Amino acid sequence: MALPRVDVPTYELTLPSEDKKIKYRPFLVKEEKILYIALETGDNKQMVLALKEIVDACTFNTLNVDKLPIFDIEYIFLNIRAKSVSEIVKFRTICPDDGITYAETEVDLTKVEVHVDDTHTNKIVIDDKKNLGLVLKYPTLKNYDIGKGTDNLQVESIFAILIDCIDHIFEGEKIYPSKDTTNAELKEFIEYLPQDAFNRIRKFFDTMPKLQKEIEVTNPKTGVVSKVTLSGIADFFELASPTVA
Predict the structure, then answer these.
(1) Which terminal residue of the chain has fewer beta carbons within 10 Å of its beta carbon, N or C?
(2) Which tens digits make up the pLDDT trace of 81-111?
(3) Predicted structure pTM score
């Protein structure tokens, strides 16, 4: 005889990347278990797999999680956590003024938003006279491990991510889609760019939308009030853990 099941509420949010509404539910005990195991291992790959599995399940398998921009995944995951455990998260963090003292603080997950830099663009013009440049796609979980970003990746990893994020190259009215171009050809194109052009491409990654929240922390020893910025998957994955009250 089949046992009864508890009804789970359904909520709605808008994806930051495309202004599209999706439905989601809180995570269940089985997904909480996945989260616990990933946190216990401390392994980046396990955390990425856990994120994918939980987001996919809690959005009713309606999204192509592998192709979503990282900031969409972060935003969905944090909203799932807020409805699953509590919208207010209390946690301990190191006080910036002395770098050693821990302080208790809290974050209202409903106040965390995706921030977009005013200078951000995914269209990079390399040569104005030729109207030569490229259009980039946002990195996905396939590109980044939790806790990593373009600031601390090795050069080869940056190149691999960049090549994977090229949507197309253009020159005047002519378009060269990346899907019709080999990785070797794309790599050669990037390697022959002038340094200032590469810096413009790098700016795309530095300024792309990200989940971010600035909080105030009061050092219990010195009384100094400092501002701490939470940003990216690593910070919010930990906050989204059900172990954080």
Answers:
(1) N
(2) 889 888 888 888 899 999 999 999 888 888 8
(3) 0.83
pLDDT score for 36: 80
Residue pair 16/71 in contact by the 8 Å Cβ criterion = yes
Residues 15 and 27: their CA atoms lie apart, in Å, by: 19
Residue ranges of E strands in the chain: 11-15, 20-24, 88-94, 102-108, 113-115, 123-127, 132-136, 166-171, 174-177, 210-218, 225-231
Q: How far is Cα of residue 143 from the mean position of the Cα atoms in its chain?
A: 11
CA–CA gap between residue 83 and residue 69 (Å, rounded): 22
The tokens describing 63, both together, are 């999204």
Distance separating the N- and C-terminal Cα atoms of the chain: 37
Cα 3 to Cα 9: distance, rounded to the nearest angstrom: 19
For residue 61, give both structure tokens.
């398998």
